Every structure is written in C-alpha cells, then in structure tokens.
Amino acid sequence: MAARTRPRAVSARPAAARARPLARYRPLKLLAKLPRAALVCALVAALNAGAWAILVPALQVPDEQSHYAYTEYLVQHGRPPAAGAADDRLSTSELNAARAVKFEQVQFAPEDPAIWTATEQRAMNALLAHGGDRGDGNGAASEVGVEPPLYYALQAIPYSIASGGTVLDRLQLMRLLSALLAGVTVLFVFLFVREALPAVPETWTVGALGVAFLPGFAFISGGVNPDVLLYAASAALFYTLARGFRRGLDRRLALAIGAATAAALMTKVNAFGLLPGVAVALMAMSLHRERALRLRTFALPALALGVALAPVLLEMLLNATVWDRPVVGATASKFGTRNIHPSLGTLLSYTWQFYVGPLPGLTHYFSGFSLRRLWIYNFVGLFGWVETSFRPLVYELALVPIAAVAGLAARTLLARRRRLRARLAELLSYGVLAALFLLFVAAASYIAHLRLGGSLGQLRYLLPLVPLYGAGLALAARGAGRRWTPAIGTAIVALAIAHDLFSQMMVIARYYT
C-alpha cells in the first residue's frame, strides 16, 4: 500500500507548487470569480465603444478638445490647469491638429463632411507634421478647469505612451482607454442587476447588453470625456449598494462603497449630486443592521463617507496651497451675472420644466423646446456636437418600443408588489439617490441659465444612473411571464443592437459622405 501511495504524493507536489504562485495574484483570482456572462458583456461593451472611437472623427465628441487639453497640460506641467481663466487657450500642437482635421468647419455643419479624400489626407498630414509646442496652452481652464484630475491622470498613461506620435495618435489611444472604461461600466451594471434581481438570472445579460448598445452611452464612451469614468464609478457604487442591501452592511463593504464614491467625486463635479443619496442609502442599511437608531448606527456610514471625502479634502488642500485653483468648484463670480437672482422657487420651477414641461402661469424657461425634443431626441440619438440626428419620423416611431418596454417593466413591478414591500427601504434609497442627482443636474443647468441663458439638457449628464436603466430592461424582459422571458429578452437586446448599428450608420453618413 505504501508503494502505491508514494507516486500520488510525488505527483501532487509539483501541482501544489505551481498553484501557489498563481494564488498570489489577487486581481486574477477576483477576475476568475466573476460570471463568464458578465465578462462577455463587458468585452462586447468595450468593443462597441471602440468601434465608435474609430468611426467618430477626432474632436467631434462634445468638449473633447478641452479634455485633451486638460490631459496635455497635466502631463506637461505636472499639475491641473488653473480654473477660472479668461479663455480656453489650446496648445499650438492641438490647434494645428484642429486645423488639420477641419474641426471648426465640421463641428456644427452636418453638410460639411470630415477628412475623406486623398487630397485632404495629404493636407492633414502636412499640418500634423508641423507638430507644435505642447506646453503653451492653458488646459482649456475656463471650460473644464474646475473638474477633478482623476480621469485626466488616467488618460496621462496612453497620452505618454503615444508621446512620440501626433496629436491624433495620442487622442486615439486615449479614446481606447475610454472604451475600456465602458466595459468596466457594463461589468458593474451586470453585477448590480444580479444583486438587485437575484431570482431572474436570465435577465441579467439583457440589462447589461442593453446598456452596452445604448448609442448615447457608446458614443460618449468612444471619446475623451470624464463622463466615461463617472459612469464606471457610479455603476460600481450602485453594485456595492445593492450588495449591501442584499447581504448586509459590514466594514469591508462600507470601505468599498466609500472607494466607489471617492472615485466618482474625484472624476467630475456632477458626482456630488450622488453624495446625499449615498448617505441616505448607507443610513437605511445601517438602521436595518442595528434595528434601532443609536450612536453605533452612524459608525459604518461615517466610515464610508470618510473614505469618500478624504481624497476630496486632499484635493481642496492642494488647490488652496499648491495648484492655485478655487478650493471648491466654480468661483462665486460665476453666479448671477445676468441680473437674475436665484431662488428656491425658481429653481424648483426650472427643474420641473427641465424634466417634465412648463406649468400654466409660470415663467417658461424652455419656450420652443419641448420635453420630447430634449429627452426623447437625446435618448434615441443626437451625436457629434448634438447636431447629428435622425429624421423626425424616427423619433416619433421610437416612442412605440420605449412605451412597450416601460409598460413591461411596470407590469413586473405590479405583479411582484408584495415581494417589493420587503425591499421598500432599498427601492426608496435608489429613488432618493436618483431624484437628488436629477435635482443636482437641473441645478447645474439652472446656473448655466443664470450665467448665459443656456441649458445643459444632454442625456450624457444623466447616464451615471444607467444601472437603473439596465435594471429596467431586465424587469421588462420578465414582464410577460417566465415562459416568455427568453423571447422578450432576446427582442430587447436585438432592438438595442439595431438601434446602435443604425446610429453608427447615420454617423458614417454624416461625416464620410
């Protein structure tokens, strides 16, 4: 017997020796634990956003020239640009690239295509060959200088890798990093839907792929824009919150929630609209854990919020002492410059009209600009500098599937209303988080209205809530009953793919014909 057991013992040792080094790579272990379907959805999202990054001409994603300039300034000077500058002075190298790709001629002119002919290509290459100084710009300070530096610090990696190429080389590599972040967003959307709807696993991929093929999301994710990292951080935040509601809040999860919130806050100022809702959700989870309101109830929420705010406080300190930037966001001089005095009443009226429409007897802030134009058009597709659109009939016809999906999701909620009562605190927390974020976005647009008379009504500002959209698609797939769930889910994903493909074809027709 001893002779028989020796070969087994000898053969087992090399296997164990080989397994030990692999076990040290914790990221690989975590990746191996993820569902294969989640990884496939993430890969699909990254590839789709990468396709958009290739299709859309350089600098034709909103504010891309400013975000590139911020990254360039950060790399060249080792610090963020000073916010509040009087102009958006781009570097000579970026200005030469903008002229080479006919940026200003193409920007708001659907009748003027991008570089396409061989003659135009030669002229573009000649201008790009001149290069230019990369350090003589101000980082588009008046446009994006108030934004936190996390996204731009990440983009400094591909920028530096392609430092020996042209501006377009660096920009394209930076776009591919954004596409990878789109994959991260969809990965967390899948995980969020899995936690929020654990009883219907066949719908998890529906929610994730529906987000992956949402044209507005893929379009922005194919460009250089900090919104892309905000989407990923927000999706991670929703996932950690859902995990806390389902499995209970503990110290490890509080740290994860705080880290996701910190990443969002260090990406874009808009993320502060998520913070009050996160605090409400943390208190709801802690109250459920402690079963009473006592001093200990505040411990884990305080830990999570402390982790979230620590890098923000550090940035504020650096702003005040090293970087010569406003300590918090925009300066006071940016408010009330059109002799219109803000008030809570006018803010609430503006917010209602921003999302719903005007009320009788109140000032109309959006005369000639209907709710359908503002949000339905944005959802179905407005690309480029929000000037590339489908024909009006497409937006009208799109209301049919939108209403069908919304009706199916509502039917699922109604059918499961008794089960939802046990999760009322979780649902209310998501609702409060979404409502307060929507209020923050409307308030930002209200400030822009006070300053300039304009509006910030673009779908991309609402996409930090995209995990809720994914969950809505998953609920819709379940709306016709378990028997029909695979068919309805397949139809929703097929419709999302068709929506994305037709949007890409429209962009191709806009820029290359």
**Strands across the major sheet, in which order?**
1-2
How many helical stretches?
Answer: 23
Mean pLDDT: 86
What structural class do the secondary elements suggest?
mainly alpha
Q: What is the beta-strand fraction? A: under 5%
Unreliable runs: 1-20, 331-338
Order of helices and strands: HHHHHHHHHHHHHHHHHHEEHHHHH
Q: State the helicity in percent bands.
A: 55-70%
How many structural units, i.e. domains?
1
Largest sheet: 2 strands, antiparallel
User: Quick one: how many beta strands?
Assistant: 2
Broad shape: globular
Rg calc: 25 Å
CA distance, first residue to last residue: 80 Å
Would you mind describing this structure in some detail?
The protein contains 23 helices and two strands. Helices cover 68% and strands 1% of the residues. The chain has helices at residues 2-23, 26-33, 36-55, 64-77, 92-100, 103-107, 118-129, 141-144, 150-161, 167-196, 204-212, 215-221, 227-247, 251-265, 275-290, 299-323, 344-355, 371-381, 392-415, 417-421, 424-452, 466-477, 485-512, and strands at 382-383, 388-389. Residues 1-20 and 331-338 have low confidence and may be disordered. With 513 residues, the chain is mostly helical. The longest helix has 30 residues, at 167-196. It has one domain (35-329, 343-512). A hairpin with a 4-residue loop joins strand 1 (382-383) and strand 2.
